[in-house]
Request: fold
Amino acid sequence: MQTVPFIPDNAPFTPEQRRWLNGFLAGLYSSAQIASPAVDPPPSLKIAVLYGSQSGTAEGLARKVAKELKAKGHVASLHSLEGYTPASLLAESYAVIIASTYGEGEAPDNARPFYEQLCLEHFPCCGNLSYAVLALGDSNYEQFCKFGVDLDSKLASLAGTRLCERVDCDVDLDESFAQWKSILFARLDEIVAARPSHSPIAAMPGLLPSASKKEIAPSHTRENPFLAPLVEKRPLTHDVSSKLTLHLAFNISDSNIRYEAGDACGVIPRNDQLLVDEILHLLSFSGSVPVQLPKGGTATLQDALLGHLQISCLTRKVVEAYATIGRCKDLFALLAPGQQENLGSYLYGRGLIDLLYDYPGVLRDPADLIAMLPRLAPRLYSISSSPSAHAGEIHTTVAVVRYHAHNRDRGGVCSTLFADRTDPGEALPVYIQPNKRFRLPTDSTAPIIMIGPGTGIAPFRSFLHERRATGASGRNWLFFGERTAASDFLYREELENMKKDGHLTRLDLAFSRDQERKIYVQNRMMDQASEFWKWLEDGASIYVCGDASRMAKDVDTTLHTIVEQQGRHSTEDAMEYVQQLKEQHRYHRDVY
Reply:
């Protein structure tokens, strides 16, 4: 019996498409005759995945969530809270929000307008919204995860329905993120299962995307870093300086790493071998005993302490676990309600070694030690090289942290690794942390104003070399500050040469200890208030990099003052002017 094709020859398809359709429909028809109908898959949900990110971590997690939701068949849209309005949220039925907190409990710069609008009096109820919040923060700060906490509470007060309970993630967030995601996805599956089913759409060559497209090879990430040889290490400060700042260059020519000016370099650190040896000695543990790592796999106890676990600082969770194992009354007293200030005083400057000396004989099993310690987190450093001018390399600018506390000399885990335990030729695991909110203007003729004291100079060195290498004609103004010009003028020769040849249009310096009255970058801004205002009116973009708690706040206050005084604006109008700079992507901050 001759088979009649389902798709006639005169149908508007190519021969290949017609053959594919006829075969596909014939298969469906045949299956329908000999088998019971298959149960249709459940319908998908339309879900908005939103993020408020300061350094890019929340954005990266949001992209993972959106990708996995799509893989499960949901219609997931990804949005930054920058430019996203609460009115848009009212139109959503499902929203997943990943919100970071920086500084003293502050919302990311790009998320603040969204939250302020959400908090307006008489804002409509969100009764139709089901939502989930993942909060990111750093437990070393008193206001841990505050923005995520506030956002979750506000949505609940507006009658929103939680899909799952909020989870607050510390710097070592992998386990918390995975648990939150598992609970969230399970809840979404329950909702989907309770809805009517629908028919799937099959892929067809040339008409719909095929599921068999070749996968793009993953780039180097935190989980898959590149071992980059250190090819240069030199001091930027002089011996008489009270601190050491290093210029480091890594070779990435044998990798597929790509970055842009403004991005950060993540480094996977290792703890000090001498400190690990002292810990093992105090515990009478063998470093060769195998242990189970928190994220799976096994290692020797020594390797776990060297490269996987945080041992140089204490958190509330570590002290709580230690106190529980050892039934330490003094530690329980510090953990009691109302003792936050005393607990903070004890935690400050101390590490695991201090617990072992102060309360000896508590740990008997290496597994208890592994379970109580957080994962050793990567360190992020603003990239100070230009991808156009320094091909095949990544440069970073690192202040070496050293201090004496509680009768011990101590130091930053990664900065002392660079300074004391890594020589040129040795390799360290690195990856790129993109910072899409800290980019040069797309208009190469636009002027830029850069404000970066100390190692905050790093991204601006990158900007200056990138603009020169790409032939950008826009004017460049740098405000740089440090302690003294004689010992702490980072990249002095480079900057002075750029000033001489005109590439650096203006260079204003603030060396706080070179005169009786301390002078900072915000003071230099006020000294040049009239010219600063002219640059703003000419379309200049402002970039600020450095300390969030003091410098960035003082710079922001000074910016408002300049706009108010030079532009003859009221306080309210000056605030609106600065807000417009942010909305126009002309006010960028990379602060920590």
